[in-house]
């Protein structure tokens, strides 16, 4: 599954970010000119990604096509935000990217109701003023430093009060 995620990201964004590439042109003459204008490195990258594309199942390729269509239908500001996020993601270390992917998997495995609760709490947090958010962040950092038995004890006490 991890490989599929990487392939989806690479292939989708190869198709998106190479406007006029050989994969998106309908006019063979224009596609040929575009191909010839690419550097050797770009050609090698596209060839490798094309081989990955061909190795995917029909179902996986269709999923990528659908995601690309969704992306293309987004407003320009949203597309730009996605591009900037991808750029930041690419700039992270391998360990940081891996941590993000793992967290995303955990998020997706949560029941929908739990995700809704977390999302609502996040939105409430975002609405707080800066000083209050900083205060909560400091409290959280203190919380993380507590030994697990102490945290369990505090949570147990809080549950009794509810």
Explain what you see.
It is a single chain. Helices cover 83% and strands 0% of the residues. It has 162 residues and is mostly helical. It has one domain (2-128). α1 crosses α3 and α1 (2-17) packs across α4. It is elongated.
Q: What's the N-to-C terminus distance? A: 41 Å
Question: Which spans have pLDDT < 50 for at least 5 consecutive residues?
Answer: 19-23
Structural class based on helices, strands and sheet pairing: mainly alpha
Strand content: under 5%
Helix content: over 70%
What profile does the largest beta sheet have?
none
Order of helices and strands: HHHHHHHHH
Count of separate structural domains: 1
Oligomer: single chain
Total beta-strand segments = 0
Radius of gyration: 22 Å
Principal-axes shape call: elongated
Gist?
The protein is mainly alpha-helical and 162 residues long. Helix content is 83%, strand content 0%.
């Amino acid at each position: 599954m991890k490989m599929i995620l990487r392939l989806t990201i690479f292939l989708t964004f190869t198709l998106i970010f190479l406007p006029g590439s050989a994969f998106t042109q309908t006019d063979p003459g224009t596609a040929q000119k575009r191909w010839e204008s690419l550097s050797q490195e770009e050609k090698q990258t596209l060839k490798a990604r094309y081989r990955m594309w061909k190795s995917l199942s029909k179902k996986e390729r269709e999923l990528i096509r659908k995601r690309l269509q969704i992306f293309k239908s987004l407003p320009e500001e949203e597309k730009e935000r996605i591009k900037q996020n991808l750029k930041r993601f690419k700039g992270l270390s391998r360990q940081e990217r891996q941590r993000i992917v793992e967290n995303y998997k955990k998020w997706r495995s949560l029941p929908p109701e739990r995700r809704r609760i977390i999302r609502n709490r996040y939105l409430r947090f975002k609405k707080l003023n800066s000083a209050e958010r900083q205060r909560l962040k400091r409290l959280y950092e203190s919380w993380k430093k507590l030994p697990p038995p102490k945290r369990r004890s505090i949570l147990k006490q809080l549950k009794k009060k509810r």
